[in-house]
Amino acid sequence: MYLMKDITREGNPVLRNQTKPVKFPLSDEDRELGEKMMKYLEVSQDPELCKKYHLRAGVGLAAPQVGQSKSMAAVLTPPEGEDQKSPFKAIMINPVIISNSVQRGALTEGEGCLSVDRDVPGFVPRADRITVKYQDLEGKEHKIRLKHYPAIIAQHEIDHLHGMLFYDHINKNDPFSKTEDEVFFD
Ligand SMILES: O=CN(O)CCNC(=O)c1cccc(Cl)c1Cl
Ligand code: NI
Known about the structure:
Removes the formyl group from the N-terminal Met of newly synthesized proteins. Requires at least a dipeptide for an efficient rate of reaction. N-terminal L-methionine is a prerequisite for activity but the enzyme has broad specificity at other positions. With 186 residues, this protein is an alpha+beta fold.
């Protein structure tokens, strides 16, 4: 199981590299990578286990964050979130955003990252709705539409696969700048 000691932090070049596509059929190593990333999210969202293993809770995790420069990420929206009607749980392999809404969105409380051991305040403007294509552990292609919170998380994770960190998107001159066409939500 991954612990915080296994998480790569800012300064580790793996976080700024473009990841390589994952080949199918999955090697045992790649399958285990995906399963262990999802396991981290599940454990980190359980208050007891999160405390027991001294984890920082997460709703997503990307392979570079565990030192693997591979195009794979796990997403697990918390059940109690505002999206309980559409909880999203997926191990996304070779994910590609194939369309973005013009409408932008951001979380009012900004974003955080396991690989960034500090608060970086500011709105992280992203597309409010996206269509993502990815393969699952069996290699099956999926094409899904995400909006609001799950869309934000997916973009945060897919950014990791391209060497981007959330604060790269924060407006340097005015971190909390709002433009009229953006939606902000908790
Ligand atoms: O890449 C994944 N992490 O760094 C895990 C920790 N961060 C979060 O769970 C998190 C927190 C707030 C907003 C977003 Cl979008 C995310 Cl993703
Ligand atoms: Ni992150």
